[in-house]
Amino acid sequence: MTALIPLSDWLRQAPDQPVATDATGAVSRAELLARVAHWCQVLPTRPGQRWAVYHQDTLEFLALLLALWQQQCTVCVPGDDRPATIERLQRRVDGFAGQYPEYLLPYQSNACAPCSMPEWRTLSPAFPALEIFTSGSSGEPKPVLKTFAQLESELAALEQLWPGENEAVILTTVSHQHLYGLTFRLFWPLCRGQLFERDACQFTEDIYRRARQYPQFALVSTPSHLGRLNPSLDWYSLRPKCRGVLSSAAPLQRQDSLQVSDLLGVPVREIYGSSETGAVAWRAQCRQAEARWAPVPGISMALNPDSTLTLRAAQISGGSQTLSDRVELDPDGCFRLLGRTDRIAKIEGKRVSLAEVERVAEQHPLIKTAKALALSGRRVEIALVAQLTDQGQDHLRGQGKRGLARALREAFKPHFEPVALPRRWRFVEQMPYNQQGKITMDSLMALFHQEETKWPELISQAATEQGAELVLRIPAELVYFDGHFAGNPILPGITQVHWAAHYGHQLLGSGGVFCRLEAVKFQQVIFPESEVSLELEYSAEKRKLSFRYYSDRGVHSSGRICFN
Predict the structure, then answer these.
(1) Domain membership flag for residue 74
(2) What is the CATH number of the domain that holds 406?
(3) Left, alpha or beta for 446 (phi > 0: left; psi -120 to 50: alpha)?
């Protein structure tokens, strides 16, 4: 097994070979070093500072990271560049680097001559290299500090588990702005001398097209993408090229894992862990039974009385961490997940396990995946977001939302007391995954907050760094229909603009002071109970949000919203 290059000394020890690749070809080590040297010169840093770094280009992100480390600064890695995130970071960091409009320092390729290369320093294993943030799937994101020793310990364990795959180019659908992407998309390939793509794939067609360009490839992805691979593409022609598929962020549905394995000819390796622990276990599904999770090398586990695990490893802050998942631990050290302990809701004095609600829901033939939450209003109620199977979609079309909810409530009655039955429902074509492949509490809550008559019903949404697409149902009870062309109501144009601005701010971070509208066209009216798609694209540089409403009838409206 080839030894990994230490992350803390990569600048001095890395061989002179390409590091990354993009549409124009391979990026050399020398080009990366020039970028690092440039940022060392222009960033106004002092040792001991914290700097937030956000950049969609993985290579530019890496150059900023290495430069700040050389200046003995800790790098804070937020999951996004939304205004609320920036506001929260301002209380924690000394500076911002990357694609922050108000703090942007552009890279100048000629700003650093070869003669001005600094003496690269080796950093201490105990140096606090990163501050990353939990996903916020159960509340406010929390910071987690990582030293070089912890990062390198995790990389060594992964290399021990899966050595010798460094000829495959890393393709990915995940962002490097969180620990899973950082580790598997960037740090591990970097330290083993493996090429990685600078840009993430947004759609399954991108994966297919790019994979065809390389003799060998490996895919780093999440359930949100792997569960939607388009089987009509000729994946079988890629099987001789595929060296591995990784998935994390949430457990992958067994049928999705087996389908991807059939298409690409390799088992899907699922990674289990957290921001606090890094990767601690893995599994690959088989056809005979649900696969168990096996610990990665260097992880020791102890079962607690409440069926949770306490993990000990060099890669974990403080040396140990107790997980929030309950497990069934077998004598050989492998385990099965039973659900989280911290997802208990109190409904009229009764304790209800949200994980148990989800488990019962996912056993129903009409539901593929489900997420439960407790909503507080005049009283606390259980709500359920369900992604339906094909059979469930047929039932929804035939019986409507109320009929489907009624049938599902009957299925819940043998398992729960009446007060614990789900009372509010959202049926979606796709769960609201974020860029990290996570389902946050905010995204689930938003599906129910939008039930007010001023908002459409959000059927599904998908977002990237620059764009988003939503499928909306236009309820007949909207206040905007009241008195608007009485007897034959239509959705006002100003409402369509307002919704576009709202979702653009929520999903893409667009906003500021409204300036004007450009190229606005209202081509076809939108009637009550219509289902339409809203396509959004935001240019942070121009501060313009483009929108387009369309359906199977064609384009309804389009235009650009400009902000100061």
Answers:
(1) yes
(2) 3.30.300.30
(3) alpha
507's CB contacts (< 8 A; 6+ apart) are 461, 463, 468, 536
Distance CA 89, CA 77 (A): 10
Residues 423 and 455 in one domain: no
Please tell me the pTM assigned to this model. Answer: 0.67
Contact 548, 508 (CB under 8 A): no
CA pair distance 490, 476, nearest whole angstrom: 10
Domain finish residue from 78, 102, 123: 123
Amino acid (1-letter code) at residue 384: L
C-alpha pair distances (Å), 438 with each of 238, 250, 427: 28, 7, 18
DSSP string, 527-557: -TT-EEEEEEEEETTTTEEEEEEEETTEEEE
Q: Are strands 278-283 and 294-295 parallel, antiparallel or unpaired?
A: antiparallel
Count of the separate structural domains present in the chain? 3
Query: Could you tell me the two tokens for 204?
Result: 């399954």
Q: Which two tokens stand for residue 153?
A: 């310990």
Q: What stretches in the chain show pLDDT beneath 50?
A: 1, 111-115, 138, 451, 483-484, 486
pLDDT tens-place string over residues 511-522:
777 888 999 999
Strands of the sheet with 268-274, listed across from one edge: 25-27, 20-22, 196-197, 169-172, 217-221, 242-247, 268-274, 278-283, 294-295
The reply to whether 491 and 547 lie within a common domain is yes
Domain that residue 56 falls in? 29-123
